[in-house]
Amino acid sequence: MTDRPPRRPGRTLTARAVLVTCAVALVSVLVTAVLAVPLAVRTAERQAQDALAAQARLTAEVLRFRLSRGRPADEERLLRLLANQGIDAYLIGAGRVDRPGLPRQVVERIAAGRNVSGRRIVDGRPALVEGRALAGGNGVVLTRPRATGLWRQVIPGLWLPLLAGLAAGVVAGSLLARRLARPIRQAATAAARLSAGDRAVRVPVEPPEEVAELAYALNGLAAALATSEGRQREFLLSVSHELRTPLTAVRGYAEALADGVLGPAEAERTGRIVLAEAEHLDRLVSDLLALARLEAADFPLDPVPVDLVELVGAAAGTWGGRCAAVGLELRVETPDRPVPAYTDPGRIRQVVDGLLENALRVVPPGAPVVLAVRPTGPGPTDGGGPVDGGGMTDGSGMTGGGVVEVRDGGPGFTDDDLAVAFERGALHQRYRGIRKVGSGLGLALAAGLVRRLGGTITAGHAPEGGAAFTVELPGIPYRIRTPA
Asked: What is the DSSP letter of 395?
């Protein structure tokens, strides 16, 4: 187990969520200010322009008939009232303005009898201008300085929203991080308990969907580990039982020989029994080693062009006598021409021998055992020779594969058995004490060998009433399969 790195401040999910939410709050406040302040400035100027226009209309109505008569007291009061409101009034009589500062274009426009409204430079400063023309080249122009420095006025007021945004970001980030981190911490705790060997741990499934998927994955992993370890325990128990049986026999006969209980007449028989049990032990150990090495990339394989008819014939010659000795009928079904395949003959013979040994163990006397071969593709009809890559051909350049079948008239399998037939120890555990069973290694080893050789192996129901194992092998050179 690797050591857990120390927790670094600022790298936790909580800290990052708080930082992100604070940054979002700050950006939101600033963006709002950037968009809102110009809008507020334009709105304020428009309102000031409208108010100045209303003042200009009122002033024009008052002065309409009095500009030619001078400045009466009510006019003076009106002009002072405007000045108190920050409004400068310019009176135009006969095309002349009463004091300097007003742009000439404004004076000329009023003298021409046209009104003026907008922004102008008055007396060297930007101002809002509203002019109303009167009869005879007379008129009045009201000006008000434009508001400046609004940004400087607004920015100090942003501190309160910024602080409020930061506070909201901290609160929202903390709540969000706690909500997001809780299922992750639960998953981490569950993973730690799994690594410590607790297979009963489960993670509660809760939204959002990604968290639920993580919980489902961890729960599935825990269930798979529990199942796998349970099968391993069952497998080890069955293997230990298989190892203990021949060891008990060897030990018993060895003690008998050491104590002198067995006489010279029984020594030969005892030696044969001990040798048979030792061979049994050797097969078990060899199967265990082969299973352990099967998934290694350096597992020795030597694929070459093979005639499956010849290979099966050799196997039948070896197993014919053993079948006859226990009252079984060994039938061989082969075509009248070679069946080419590209495989390791030693490993395939190991598979065939293992399947036949299983059949001899469970098939009752008088029942058949069938060893069959058939092609899966075009093959040679006149004794084809090797082609590039080591395959076999019929002269047309086409290569074929082959199928080897081992069928029997024994008790066979149920449909449930077929689903676990090639799992280590599965059938041994299921039928131990019910019928004769092996160590539970042979079928798993056969499946692994066939898979590594690029073929497939399946279990099914035989027409003879028992089990049928079908091994399909490639007929052309292939890339040897290695573990992922």
From this structure: S
Task: At 25, list the tokens.
Answer: 């709050």
Distance from C-alpha of 338 to C-alpha of 406, rounded to nearest angstrom? 18
Sorted by sequence, the CB contacts under 8 Å of residue 288 that are 6+ apart come out as 239, 441
What residue has token string 């391993």? 232
At residue 324, what is the residue type?
A
What would the mean pLDDT of 143-157 be, rounded to a whole number?
67
Say if residues 133 and 67 touch (Cβ distance below 8 Å).
no
What are the residues facing 386 on neighbouring strands?
392
The HSE-up count of residue 97 (CA atoms within 13 Å, CB side) is: 19
In order, the DSSP letters of 420-451 are TTTSTTHHHHHHTTTS----S-HHHHHHHHHH
Instruction: Tell me whether strands 329-333 and 139-145 are parallel, antiparallel or unpaired.
Output: unpaired
Integer Cα distance of 398 and 413 in angstroms: 37
DSSP per residue over 404-420, as a string? Answer: EEEEESSS---HHHHHT
Least Cα distance to 132 among 157, 113, 149 occurs for 113
Q: Which residues are registered as beta bridge partners of 304?
A: 343
Examine residue 380 and say whether the peptide bond preceding it is cis (omega within 30 degrees of 0).
no
Residue 347, token pair as written in the block: 């490993």
DSSP letter, residue 48:
H
Mean pLDDT for 283-305 is 70
In DSSP terms, 92 is beta-bridged to 97, 139
Asked whether the predicted pLDDT for residue 407 surpasses 90, the reply is: yes
CA atoms within 13 A on the CB side of 340: 26
Quickly count: other Cβ atoms within 10 Å of residue 355's Cβ.
25
The pair of structure tokens assigned to 330 is 């060994």
Distance CA 126, CA 116 (A): 15
Interval 28-74: pLDDT, tens: 777 776 776 677 667 777 888 888 888 888 888 777 756 445 545 55
Per-residue DSSP letter, 125 = E
With beta carbons less than 8 A apart as the criterion, state whether 428 and 362 touch.
no
Highest mean pLDDT among 228-237, 370-379, 433-442: 370-379
Least confident of 62-76, 81-95, 435-449: 62-76
pTM attached to this predicted model: 0.47
Contact status, residue 129 vs residue 141, Cβ threshold 8 Å: yes
Residue count of the chain = 484
List phi, psi (to 5°) of 88.
-95, 135
* φ, ψ of residue 145 in degrees (nearest 5): -60, 140
3-class state of residue 92 by DSSP: strand
d(CA 365, CA 368): 8
Rounded to whole angstroms, how far apart are CA atoms 109 and 140? 11
